[in-house]
Amino acid sequence: MLNQHKVLRVLQLISLLQQNPPKSIHHLAKVLDTTIRTAYRYVDLIRSLGFDLQKDTYNRYFITNTENEFAVNFSPEESEFLRQLVLSSGKNNQLKDTILKKIYLASETTIVGSNLLNAHLGRIVQDISEAIMQRFQVKLKNYHSLSGLSIRDRIVEPIAFTDNYRSLMAFEVDSQKNKYFNVERITNVEVLEKPWENEGKHNSSQPDPFGFAPNDQKFNVHLILSLKAYLLLKEEYPLCIPYLKSIPNSDKFELKLEVNNLKPIQRFVEGLKQEIEVLNLGF
Fold first, then answer.
1. Domains of the chain by residue range
2. What is the mean pLDDT, run by run of 10 residues, along the chain of 283 residues?
């Protein structure tokens, strides 16, 4: 199965080859930031996918456009899978945005824009993903810790990303604890090429919609939101969307879920007192 980096490169390659003029293999390798040998592999993959890939007299590649370009329909399951593959791309990547739009138009999949990462974070995600596949430790450079109010390097054994790539699940070597690291607070990443040493201690339990890892306590949240509060919550915490539902015959919305930490939702409620009715907040 292709990982998200390869899928994005394939989509980028298709876009390049459909545009004039034809492209040399050296140009494709440079644009894709890869070796010529790997570029040839991508070219072969494009051909195997059924695209009419041609070469001109100068051995430059191009794809013959058809009237039904990208005339495909995705099942909901296929659309969701492809959406997850491209979410780690750059926020301003026009190719990725076009693909997401087509997925949305071809299915009922909801595209949550606030889940998308900018180009720098996309590179961080890619580097960490490769470290996960190779089971290498990484150094999270100048990580900004909100809980500890500190900025310092963290050496971790990366385990997996949360579904929307907002957080990294990793085992921190110094503290010997499994932690969640907000991707946006990572300044840079260095892959240490040092194998994992603590795999038996890894734990990859998913956090709650506010990004907090499971612990000994659970808190029930039940709120009635105005339209304003509903829109702001969706924008700020998009993973809450599955727990929101409209209230029939009104302009209100209900939020009902279980969280691992009350602080984020308490701050949200405090800032929108006139827009939220609290039915339960922690009991």
1. 4-114, 119-201, 219-281
2. 58 77 88 84 80 86 63 53 54 49 46 42 80 92 76 92 77 89 87 92 78 79 94 83 90 93 90 93 77
CATH 2.30.30.30 assigned to 119-201:
yes
- CA-based nearest residue to 82, from 98, 101, 97, 103: 103
Q: Residues of 243-276 as b/e, b for ≥16 C-beta within 10 angstroms?
A: bbeeeeeeeebbbebebbbbebbeebbeebeebb
Q: What is the pTM of this model?
A: 0.45
Angle (CA) 94 97 100, round 5°: 150
Decide: 276 and 224 in contact? Cβ < 8 Å: yes
Residue 155 to residues 101, 140, 175, Cα–Cα distance (Å):
37, 6, 10
pLDDT given at position 280? 92
- To the question of domain 219-281 being in CATH 3.30.70, the answer is yes
User: Does the domain formed by 4-114 have CATH 2.60.40.10?
Assistant: no
